[in-house]
């Protein structure tokens, strides 16, 4: 069975940023984002690719080295958006207003 690619542990990322900037909130504000943006980005795949790049730049490490499961081999981000398939009936299949089913 193939092993999942291992990057940096989220706590290691947080510890490195805290050593450099004091807190994750301080780093978030420094890069012009909401105070919780960095912690959300670390915890949630696909939350913000630009913030992932800012984190990598601050740590002086390639983004793919930090999160290999979030990026393809060519360096493009993996899409975490799930395509929406409508399950509801459309148009004429719905009961019309004031008409009994």
UniProtKB/TrEMBL annotation:
Question: Is Transcription set as a keyword in this record?
Answer: yes
Pfam families in the record: HTH_35
Superkingdom field: Bacteria
- Ner winged helix-turn-helix DNA-binding domain residues are 8-78
Arranged from A to Z, the UniProt key words for this protein are: DNA-binding, Transcription, Transcription regulation
InterPro entries linked? Lambda_DNA-bd_dom_sf, Ner_HTH_dom
The reply to whether Transcription regulation figures as a keyword in the UniProt entry is yes
Q: Which GO terms describe its molecular function?
A: DNA binding
Q: Which family is it part of?
A: Belongs to the ner transcriptional regulatory family.
Q: What is the designated name of this protein? A: Ner winged helix-turn-helix DNA-binding domain-containing protein
């Amino acid at each position: 069975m193939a092993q999942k690619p291992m990057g940096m542990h989220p706590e290691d990322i947080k510890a490195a940023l805290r050593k450099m900037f004091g807190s994750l909130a301080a780093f978030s504000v420094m890069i012009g984002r909401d105070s919780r943006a960095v912690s959300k980005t670390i915890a949630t795949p696909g939350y913000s690719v630009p913030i992932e790049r800012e984190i990598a730049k601050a740590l002086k490490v390639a983004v793919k080295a930090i999160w290999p499961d979030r990026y393809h081999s060519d360096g493009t981000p993996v899409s975490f958006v799930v395509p929406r398939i409508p399950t509801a009936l459309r148009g004429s299949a719905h009961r019309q207003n004031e008409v009994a089913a």
